[in-house]
């Protein structure tokens, strides 16, 4: 799980694999377990990342790194968008957000 050189090797500071970082960066930090496996993580490494707090489970099979999770925690709009992205990636292609969630994406006041 140690990808790259990390000066601080505390559990929450270990960098994510660059391939997985690229995927997550396109989705507010959200990624799936399947994407983690494709980036080279083994199931036991995924469990370790979750149990040490490096990653946070948003939904079954959908995760977010600790830093991104912390950044979204105090921003209600961002947190709502992260939750929307987590739902969408868990459902696969096709579904979209609508109603209040879509309004939040476009910063509309209801």
How would you explain this protein's 3D organization?
With 110 residues, the protein is mainly alpha-helical. The chain is 49% helix and 11% strand. The protein is built from six helices and three strands, in the order H-E-H-H-E-E-H-H-H. It has helices at residues 18-25, 33-38, 43-51, 66-73, 76-91, 99-105; strands at residues 30-32, 55-59, 62-65. It has a three-stranded antiparallel β-sheet with strand order 1-3-2, with helices on both faces. Strand 2 and strand 3 (62-65) form a beta hairpin. The protein is globular, with a radius of gyration of 15 Å. 23% of the residues are buried. Residues 1-11 have low confidence and may be disordered.
Rg result: 15 Å
Count of distinct strands: 3
- Overall geometry comes to globular
Q: Which structural category fits the helices and strands?
A: mainly alpha
Proportion of beta-strand residues: 5-15%
Could you give a short account of the major beta sheet? 3 strands, antiparallel
Which residues form runs of ≥5 with pLDDT under 50? 1-11
What level of helicity do the residues show? 40-55%
Q: CA-to-CA gap between the ends? A: 44 Å
What is the ordering of alpha helices and beta strands? HEHHEEHHH
Strand order of the largest sheet: 1-3-2
Number of helices: 6
